[in-house]
Specification:
- The protein is an alpha/beta fold.
- Strands 2-1-3-4-5 form a 5-stranded parallel sheet.
- The chain has one domain: Response regulator (Rossmann fold, 3-Layer(aba) Sandwich), CATH 3.40.50.
- It is built from 6 helices and 5 strands.
- Strand 4, helix 4 and strand 5 form a beta-alpha-beta unit.
- The relative contact order is 0.14.
Length: 135
Amino acid sequence: MFRIKSGKTIFISSSPVIQLTSKNEVMHVTTAMRIFPAINEFKPASVIFDYDFLGNDLEKILRRFKANAYYSKIKVYCYKQAWHISTDALLQALGVDEFIYAEALKPAATKPSATITAINNMIEKTVAGSLEAAV
């Protein structure tokens, strides 16, 4: 699961894709025209941009962020479906601090360790042996 430090966060997307902890105050912005007024009103510590939602507008928005010292203390995240070398490099050069990929938000399937598997096998053998002896 992806963690964002507690504080005010603005999430710019058509629908909330990322669930943030209750420690965060979150404002959801659904139009690109509302981004900068929302930042000035809410004064967030971080902003999450949905790359698929903003598309080509994201480059213009990031350039405006980089040009204005007022936005320099705001941590910039970019939510994307998948990693792409040239796009990610450009966005990072424009000021994205971290990327959040859809794959990273999916719960990982856990495979039991070798130790746990060995203990489970020993328990099964012991229980099976007890049942055979009882019958």
